[in-house]
Amino acid sequence: MIGVLPGIAFDALLETGILIDVLPLREGEFDGSIAFRNPALINAIRYEGRRL
Predict the structure, then answer these.
(1) Rounded CA gap, 22 and 13, in Å?
(2) Distance, first Cα to last Cα, the chain
(3) Which superkingdom heads the taxonomic lineage of this protein's source (predicted)?
């Protein structure tokens, strides 16, 4: 799956002109059931991020 993520990011760039950063997260890291080393980043992703 990780090898697919750069392709998704590139497709998004071509379609929208917006460069995105790909950060693979386990679902538990995102929903808070697993501690993530940078909780501020998770909060920013929740606010600004889009699921693909």
Answers:
(1) 12
(2) 12
(3) Bacteria
Model confidence band, residue 14 (pLDDT cutoffs 50, 70, 90): very high
**C-beta separation of 34 from 28 below 8 A:** yes
Q: Where do the structural domains in the chain lie, given as residue ranges?
A: 25-52
- Amino acid symbol at 32: G
Are the C-beta atoms of residues 20 and 9 closer than 8 Å to each other? yes
Cα distances from 17 to residues 11, 31, 44, in angstroms, run 10, 29, 21
pTM of the shown model:
0.53
Contact 46, 23 (CB under 8 A): no
Q: Distance between CA atoms of 46 and 5, rounded to whole angstroms?
A: 19
